[in-house]
Design a protein that fits this description.
This protein is an alpha/beta fold. The chain is built from three helices and four strands, in the order βαβαβαβ. The protein is globular and about 40 Å long. The mean pLDDT is 88.
Amino acid sequence: MEKPRLLIVEDDEFVANQMQWALASAYEVFLADDRLAGIEIIKKERPPVVTLDLGLPPSAGDTTEGFLALVDMLRIDPLLKVVVITGRMNRRTHWLPSDRSA
C-alpha cells in the first residue's frame, strides 16, 4: 500500500530531520527548507498535507516568508491541509493580504 505524501517546510535541518524520522513510517516525506522549494514540491508531488514553519529564509527572524508560503500553497491547492508548526512566539494574525482572490 502506498503511503500518503507529506511535505515538511522547515529551515532548521535538525528539526526537519527529526520530523522526517518520526513520520517516515506512516508518510512518504518530502523536505523543503524555504518557500520556493516547498512550492516546487507541491506542484510536482501534490502532497495533501504540509507542515509549515513560519520563520523561513530569507527572513527567518519573522513570519513574512511563512505566511507568504501559506498563501502561495493555498492558491495552488485550496484543499491542502497545512499544519503550522513554529517556534515563533508572536501570535499576531494580520498577515492575510487584503485581496485574497488575487
